[in-house]
Amino acid sequence: MKTTKRQWLRSTMALAALTVVTGAAWAQGAPVKIGLLATLEGPFAAGGADGMRGAELAVKQRGGAVAGRQIQIIKASSDAKPDVAVNATRKLVEQDKVDIMVGPLSGGEGIAVKDYSKTQPQVTFINGASGAQATTLASPSPNFFRFNTEGAQWMVGLGQAALDKGYKRVMVIAEDYAFPYSQVQGFMAEFCAKGGKVPVKAWVPLGGKDYSSVIARIPKDVDALLVVLGGADAVNFLTQYENAGGDKPMLGGSITVSQDVLNYKGKRRDSLVGTLAAGPVADAFDGADWKAFVADYQKTYPVSAGGFPSPSLFAYVYYVNMKAALDGLDAVKGDLSGGQAKYREALQKMVLKTPTGDVRLDGNRQAIGTTFVIEVVKDAKGNLNTKVARKVDNIDQMLGMKKEDFQMGTRDVPNCP
Q1: Beta-strand pair 352-354/276-279
Q2: What is the three-class DSSP state of 302?
Q3: pTM above 0.70, yes or no
Q4: What would the pLDDT profile of 392-401 be if each residue is shown by its tens digit?
């Protein structure tokens, strides 16, 4: 699923601007320009493309306009590198003069864009899918909002589920950057507190292709592997582990069991069937709003047109953040005057209705919301998806801990060998 910048420019960007307009009439008044940044190159290219679909779906559902103002989407691409994400954002903000930014996708990108947002107080920044804890927990920006829960919040409940399966010793295999640190922290905070042990952590480069040395390091006495790899990285590891005859049960990070991995290039990642994981979505969740969202996604982006059998994590999270951007505009009747002060106040106070339940923001403009413990299954059509094992609501960024007991995830924290 590798996508080059030239191919992407030709096929999706169309002179760097896409105006999403549907319905019988053009909106009146000046357009609202929204910059949309996703990772369309590198290991997360498939997820980034689906993130764009999710964001566009939110605009489509409003007929391409809010409060009499046309919504103009201007797209940009990154490749999961923080400096590339900032350069793309800078172009949207400083040259294209967007009013609102939605993005980026990856954890390190999110921290970098958050830092950049402090230099551009005239623009409101709303996250895309980035899930690193530090984006909002460390030195938050007053004009950066994140309506998705983040990587550690997504893992709540998986530690207990692992122990319930009899997995007392687990090896971690994860990419070496901020988002996997957050995912591992979210898992280990619970797993270690209840007696689990993590004797080995293998941090691997983002975009790695050879996992033979990591596979060789897997101890015989661990009960399972916690794999926090996404996109092409996940597929490469799973393929090589299968070919090496690996037979350890796996626990999955949120992006490891997203639709862009489960149905990568049409291949069924059968080794993941039965895998327990956790995240903000569960494909088979039976909530009415979720079912309506899935049906709209499937109608708008059928598999024959490049969509997935069910919206990926990235499609969902970009949808939620773009929906927040538009709902906020509606709340202030499209008024972005006064340095967007009224708009930001509306965002801060909003109770956002999402397909999986209500989301509200904390004092750092970080989402408090729902997580699912999930299991990978194969449906009647042969597609892999995830079913709900447990639903956990109202998870805050402290994961229910006292502030003095909480430690943000790093390569070395937590530690329970």
Answers
A1: unpaired
A2: coil
A3: yes
A4: 999 999 999 9
CB 278 within 8 A of CB 374: yes
Whether 257 and 267 have beta carbons less than 8 Å apart is answered as no
Question: Which CATH number does the domain housing residue 189 bear?
Answer: 3.40.50.2300
Residues 41-83: tens digit of each pLDDT: 999 999 999 999 999 999 999 999 999 999 999 999 999 999 9
Burial of 235 (0-12, 13-18, 19+ CB in 10 A): buried
Domain count of the fold of the chain? 2
Residues 175 and 199 in one domain: yes
Q: Quick one: 398 and 301 in the same domain?
A: no
232 plus 314 within the same structural domain: no
The CB density around residue 12, as the number of other CB atoms within 10 Å, is 14
Which two structure tokens, joined as six digits, stand for 90?
């800078």
Q: What angle do CA 6, 74, 321 make, to 5 degrees?
A: 115
Instruction: Please indicate, yes or no, whether residues 75 and 127 belong to a single structural domain of this protein.
Output: yes
Residue 182, domain extent? 153-285+371-405
For 245-290, what is each residue's pLDDT tens digit?
999 999 999 999 999 999 876 566 788 999 999 999 999 999 999 9
Task: Choose among 329, 335, 334: nearest CA to 350.
Answer: 329
Amino acid at 329: L
